[in-house]
Amino acid sequence: MHLYSxxxxxxxxxxxSDIKGSHISYFSNLVKVHGGINxxxxxxxxxxxxxxxKYLSETASQPVHQYAPGTxxxxxxxxxxxxxxxxxxxxxxNFFIANGATEAISLIYTYLHRKMGGAMRVLxxxxxxxxxxxxxxxxxxxxxxxxQDDHGKFDIGPFEQVIKDEKIQLVFLCSPGNPRGTVYDxxxxxxxxxxxxxxxxxLLIDAVYSDLCFDGARPWYPTHxxxxxxxxxxxxxxxxxxxxxxxxxxxxxxxxxxxxxxIHDYIGLSSPAPFQAAIARFLExxxxxxxxxxxxxxxxxxxxxxxxxxxxxxxFVIPEHQGGYFIWARCPKHIDSGTTLGINxxxxxxxxxxxxAHFGAxxxxxxxxxxxxxxxxxxxxxxxIGAAVQKG
Length: 392
Known about the structure:
2 domains; Aspartate Aminotransferase, domain 1; alpha/beta; globular
């Protein structure tokens, strides 16, 4: 699964003044262009399943190089229905293939923005994944952020009052979380879904790390009797380590299906047909899929424990994580900011991380680290972080 191959370093300086947009793009592109260790972007540092690549090779010789059906390859949709047997109601909800989870989220957002008459009031839990922050900004909508406690939780008691007072129309939630690997339990998610239904507020659940919980358990989601007020988004990008294939999907109540399809025809059209076909064939090999996902999950769990121990020893404060690709950590007190650390870290050690400010100005003292790497690569990168911290 080892893919890490450092380039010969070219003299380049990361500078605060150069960061014009996404911190993730900026720091990750430094490594892609100039070399180093990428603990920034959520890119897996290991190969996809060999069986999947075999099917892709075979599929490439087949007549599958034109547009796939807009809502998805029929075989892939059938495999999804099998994978979610007992977890959704095919009589009231539909799966929809999109160009990755990011496009799925953007498509749903575009649809709801139009449905709400061109303006929305949105809520997300902070720290929040970048799409939840920037989509409202792009569309000129109002964003409210709700902080979580040190355990990655929030008080469900006043939540409904916040929805009422702020007139919230859409709530974003990621479980397991990004950047913070929180998994919301059934009681919390069920209560959220009920509140949103009562208040006629939409709940978008981002579950792209659902199969990568460190304890091996799969989180509960309110998909069995999907409310018209709940959208469920997932992807094959992290499940099968194919982030560049751009094959995501979502589950929606039938009442939204046709309108979403019409919008998708003009802004997304279809995810790459050969990739959809290869994934559909591979998903038939349930034992191979499970073996691969288990291998990745165990690697992530072990990486989390080892990296966490090393960073705690350097003075970082790290809340408990339950799954996903990342470690979310508060910098030692003598470090000026996560951005300063990120710049110094790349300039001195060619290791890239993401400053917490990317997820909101209030997280300036934090950093996010991608642990989806071979252990030796992660070990080297974390040692570089330790060295950078020691030198201030």
